[in-house]
Each structure stands twice: as C-alpha cells, then as structure tokens.
Amino acid sequence: MTQTDRRVLISAPGKVILFGEHAVVHKKLAVAASLGLRTYLHLEENETGQCRLHLPDVDIDLTWPLSELSLNVDRKALDTDHPDNIPEEIKQQFESWMGVTTKENQRRAVLSFLYLFFVLKTDKPASFGFTISTRSTLPVGAGLGSSASFASCISTALLVLFNHIPIGFTQSEKKESYLDTINRFAYKAEQVIHGNPSGLDNSVCVFGGALSFRRGERFVPLEGFQSLQLLLTNTKVPRSTNALVAGVGAKKEKYPNVINPILDSIDNISLRCCEAFKSGSKEDLAQELEDLVDMNHCLLHALGVSHSSLEKVRVITEEFGVKTKLTGAGGGGCALSVIRDDVNVETTNLVAKKLAEEGYDCYRTLLGGTGVNAVVLGDDSLDQTWLLNADRETLESHAI
Amino acid sequence: MTQTDRRVLISAPGKVILFGEHAVVHKKLAVAASLGLRTYLHLEENETGQCRLHLPDVDIDLTWPLSELSLNVDRKALDTDHPDNIPEEIKQQFESWMGVTTKENQRRAVLSFLYLFFVLKTDKPASFGFTISTRSTLPVGAGLGSSASFASCISTALLVLFNHIPIGFTQSEKKESYLDTINRFAYKAEQVIHGNPSGLDNSVCVFGGALSFRRGERFVPLEGFQSLQLLLTNTKVPRSTNALVAGVGAKKEKYPNVINPILDSIDNISLRCCEAFKSGSKEDLAQELEDLVDMNHCLLHALGVSHSSLEKVRVITEEFGVKTKLTGAGGGGCALSVIRDDVNVETTNLVAKKLAEEGYDCYRTLLGGTGVNAVVLGDDSLDQTWLLNADRETLESHAI
C-alpha cells in the first residue's frame, strides 16, 4: 500500500445536554457531554484525480474531477467572519457543483464540505484523488449533535488530507493545539450548516468529555468528569426548536416572577452537577445526578417544553427506578436516562424493550465519549463498503 | 311543631388548596378555597332528655342520658390554650363516655364533640334532649378538609343549640362576629382532631370563598374572588403527609440553591393568583389559573411530592386540554382540575369517565362554596333518615 492509498477512519462523538437547556438562552449555566454514539468518516486517498463525497445518511454521492474544483477568485475572499459572507460569485460556483441536491440539509452538508475544502486545500500532484464517506450512529435532527459530529469529522479529514495536522494528532504533544485547530474549522462548518451555532456542540464533539458553558463566556471542561451509562430515547416527535425557545421567552415575559426563579434553580442544578463531579464519590455522584435529572426535567416541564411522549418515557423508566429528563429543545425529541452502575442488564433491556414497544428508538451508550480521533486502517478490506455495513461495536473498536 | 322539636340543617364546605401546598411550610404564600362539596349536620331538638351523636361516616352512634353527661370538676378547667391540656380527670371522664370507639378517627370525632359540648353547654330543662347526625359528601382523609368541615358544623350546632348565636346568623348584621365565634370553636375541635392544625382549613370552611395565607400571618380573603368549575379526582392512594413534608425539608437541606428558588417561584404563583382575581377578566383569569395550575404542579413534582397516579390523572386530563395539579400533601391523594366555562359538559363527562376507569373517584363541583350555614327545616319528614339518604343535589338545595 502506498502513501496515496492510505485509508483513515476518523470519528467524533455526538453530544447531549445534561442540564440547562432553554435556561442557557437566558444566560444560565448549562452542562453538555459527549456520547458513545459517533459519526464515522472513512477517508481514502487514491490516484484517481477525483474527489468523491459520499454521505449516505443524507443521500449524497457526488464525484468531481479535482481539476474542475477551482475558484476564479482569490481564495483569501473565503476568509470572512462568517461563511455566509463570502462573495456572491463563490457562492454561485459552489451552487454549480452542487448537483441535484434539493433538500436544505443536503445542500448545507455539501456546502460545508466545499467551503472547508477551499479554505484548507494545498497543492497536490495531478493524480491526487480522495473519497470521503461518512456514516453516523447518531439519529439526525434529534438534538444529539449529529451535524457538529459530522462537521468535526469533515474538518479533521481535510486538515489531515492537506497535511495541516498529523494523523496521530491525539498522540502528539501538541494535541491541544491540533484540537483547537480542528474545532475552529468544525465551527466554520457548523456555521455553514446552522447559521449561528453557539459553538458548544462542535467543542464537545472535538474535545469529548463534558463542558459547562454560559452564554458569552468560554466553555469550561468539567473537573473530575467520569463516564456514565446512559439510555437515550428518541421519541421521534418532530418539533420546532425556535418555537419552543420563543414559548419559554413568552412565558418569562408573562410570568417573570414565576419563571425567573425557575431559571435560577436550573442554573444551580448545572452548578451542582459541576461540583458533584469535582468532589463526589461515584455512588454519591449517581444519586445526585438522578436527583438533578429529575428536578431539571420537572422545571423544564414547568417552562412548558415537555411533551406527552416525554412524560410517557418518564413514566416507563420510573417504573424501574430509572430517572429521565428531556434533553435539548424538548417538545418531543430525545430523553436521557441515567443508568446507575447497580442497575442490572436485564432491567435496562426490559426498559429499552418497553420503550421500543411505544415506537421509540432506544440507544444504550456512554456519556463522555472520546473526542475526535483518527486512525490509519492497515487492512485494505476496511473500505467504504465496510464502513457502511459494519455494526456499531466493530466501528467503535476500530475508531477509538 | 313546638320549639323543642325544631330541626336544623347546618352545613359547611370542604376546602382545597389551590396553590402553595408544601411551600407554605417554608413561609411561602398559599391560597385555599372552599368547595361545593359539604358536610351536613342535622340537629334535632327533642324532649327525650337524651343526647344522641350519630356520625355514620365514621361509624359512630352513641346515646347518653343528658343527666349523666356532667363533670365532677370545674368547667373552667376546660379553658386551656389547647384542648390536650385539660386536666387528666376530665380526659378520663371523656374516655368513660366513649364506648367501644377503638379507631383513632372515631375517638377524636367523639372527643371533639364532648369537648365543645362542655365548653358551650348552658342550663336546660330536664326533658331537654337532642340528636346530632352528620353526613359528608367529602371524601375522608383526602386533604379536602372533611374534618374542618365537620368541626365547623359541630361548633355551629352547639352554639345554636345553647343559644350563643341565632340560627339566622348568616342574615344577621353581626354575621362576621358570629362567624368569628364559630371559627374559634371550630378551631378548638380541629385541635382535638389534629393536634396542631394551621387554622386555615376551618377558616375556609367557616367563611367560604378563598383565602391567602402565610405562616405566622393572618388569613386574607381573596379580593374579587369568583367561583370556578372544578373536577376533583381522588386517586385513593394513601400517603403520609408528615413523610412528604419531611422529604421536601430533606431535599431543601441537600439542594438549598435548587429548592429555594422553586419555593420562591411557588410563592409568586400564589401572589399571581391573588392579583389575577383582583384584576382579571373571567377569560384572562381562566387562562392564568390554568398556567399557574400547570406550573405549580411541575414545581411540586420537582419537590418530589407527586406520584405516578397523579401523573396519570394529568396525562388523562391533558388529552382534553384540561390542566391539573395535585392538591394538598401529594404522593397520591387528590388532584384538582380547572374546568373553563367553555369546556362543554360532554368533555367533562368523558374526562370523568376515563378517570373512573382508572379506579379514581371523581367529583364535579364548584370552587368557592358558601361558608357555614344553618337553616330551619320546616318539614318533619326531613329527619335524620332523610339526611342519610338524600342525594347531593337535594341536600345542597336545602342547605344553602
């Protein structure tokens, strides 16, 4: 296998908001953590002179001769504060390469790739070609950071491909600096996808572990953070994050003296979570997290962002003594349940079965997955087809 | 019919806590209101020389010759700050009249009667006799003030019987003063029954309408209070009020910065309720009460005093757009649902049917029933048997 044939498996975790969703909009502290569920990116360098972008999760498979992927304008024009502000003629060129990608999520996925490609590309031989394929074990649009996870992978792939960072960046002494670089470009990709993201999602996906954050301040890694077992339930009830956020705002305006203390209480739940990781024994920690999860959910319900499906998940898990809260925007979407170490596998299986019977998707995973990672795949058989067909355990065992 | 044959129907409403249960223990404002569900007391004066106390709800039917109901000690000894502090020899005499009333609630019902009887009795001819029969449409031990309602009726009956107040006290110019007197003795009876009651329950039962209260302060009638339709659901799940109160205290101790703002929020919910009655139009009022009911329940849930049965009631009523909160101690017990004027009868029937299918008892009634009342029954046929067998509508039509 030559250098140009190398295959790289890049992966980045999803994220989940542990505490403080909605309250964070009103400058309260929130805590988010990475997940065991990840997005995987298979990067194959070859000598085809072609670039193939294969994103089966959003039904994209585009191939361009690399000789055609060139801009008529100065590349420096891409260096704007927000990718939306690039010159109109570049946007038009991007659109011309887009093909028949009519759906907005397809368009934005391809655009984020093209944008980073032109920002990061360096000179290569004429025969140089590559294929990028991705696959995610994260549900899309469920508030679990699937786009940030994708953005982190794409950013890493292009940084590695054009030799801005070494493949072994996680083993490097300069790891933190490399991760900062990945995160900076992942944020750019997130801007292309989401407009004005907070930067939290990509930070969690890139660095892994858990972060606390308050609007307008820097993210702070959680001291003493420990991995925890988690059951995620996707109710698959669609909802509008914007409408839910607006609803809380309207309630706060109508009942300020009722809502403001609720937001303060949530602020203190997030603070307590940070303290619990810093100082608690694993048992105390589990107990406290259960208490905080339960209280935070009730407060979110008081804010009006729960949903009958989420309440049903809580009733089902509560029967087994498992504490659950909504995570993210609410109004449907996902619920997270903390699984204590002393909850046996049979119980967790039974809970998951009962939830599945209601038509919900269940994911057993860990809170606090490793951040973005890249490994060289030595075996030629581990190609794109393998990526698309391998089960989750196999992917995880190769990726981290 | 002679004067000594007169029959009087006395009645007093139950009470429901609208907002602020549990928080009130921590000096937050609470709001309680009377109910359309009442306790009825049938007082018959006769010339049997006997006193009959007939309380079928607690399975009591005792008859004493009035000549035997006399104390060996000075009656002034009854004038203590708390009925528990009366001399031991009086207690022993009370016990000797008790008969085979082994259950604590039976004992306390009879004791409260005997205590008030000796405090209030005046000289009467030797032939003087009377029968007191009671019947309640309130569920017992469900946090709906059944004992305070009973205490208010007994207090009124004995005050009327011994001519301390006129039967027509509600039409009198001195009504307020008479109600104060009734309330003072109703509180004494509540002390016999409950030990250390707050005095809220009997105040609501005696005065009717709605009151706000904060521990250590005087009760304040709600300005502009309007009657509202209510659905009460008794889950019949037994619970210990003391254990629930202690649980909230323990949570407050463990998570003060989380729980204190929740209690503040509840305080402001009660305040907002008072303001809403003072200033709101009926439609705004209904909307606001629904919002406050919903938020207050979620906050009580956050305090840990809900129960799966109460959550089920909320899920069922929510399907019909009806807002529900637990009322009283929680952990089971009763839930109250606000029924807006624009909710049609069919919907309310359907909700009640669904709740009954779960095994719960449903009561459709009004918030803000009239306080204690007494009417002379002109018709001889309206005797104790009538009282025990009449339906709720018939009793209500005679009593108020």
What's the gist of this structure?
Helix content of chain A is 42%, strand content 22%. Chain A is an alpha+beta fold and 400 residues long. In chain A, helix 3 packs across helix 4.
Structure characteristics:
homodimer; 400 residues; alpha+beta; Ribosomal Protein S5, domain 2; Alpha-Beta Plaits; 2 domains; 8-stranded mixed beta sheet; 4-stranded antiparallel beta sheet; 12 helices; 42% helix; globular
Summarize the helices and strands and which ones pair or pack.
Two copies of one chain form a homodimer.
Chain A: E1 7-19, E2 30-46, E3 50-55, E4 60-65, H1 88-96, H2 104-120, E5 129-136, H3 146-161, H4 175-194, H5 200-207, E6 210-213, E7 220-221, E8 228-234, H6 241-254, H7 256-279, H8 282-302, H9 308-318, E9 323-327, E10 334-339, H10 345-357, E11 361-367, E12 373-377, H11 384-389, H12 392-399
Parallel strand pairs in A: 3-5
Antiparallel strand pairs in A: 1-2, 1-12, 2-5, 2-6, 3-4, 6-7, 8-10, 8-11, 9-10
Describe the structure.
- 2 copies of one chain form a homodimer.
- Chain A is an alpha+beta fold and 400 residues long.
- Chain A has 2 domains: 3-221 and 369-399, Ribosomal Protein S5, domain 2; 228-367, GHMP kinase, C-terminal domain (Alpha-Beta Plaits, 2-Layer Sandwich).
- The first copy, chain A, contains 12 helices and 12 strands.
- In chain A, strands 1, 2, 3, 4, 5, 6, 7 and 12 form an 8-stranded mixed β-sheet that branches.
- The mean pLDDT of chain A is 93.
- At the A-B interface, helix 7, helix 8 and helix 9 of A face helix 7, helix 8 and helix 9 of B.
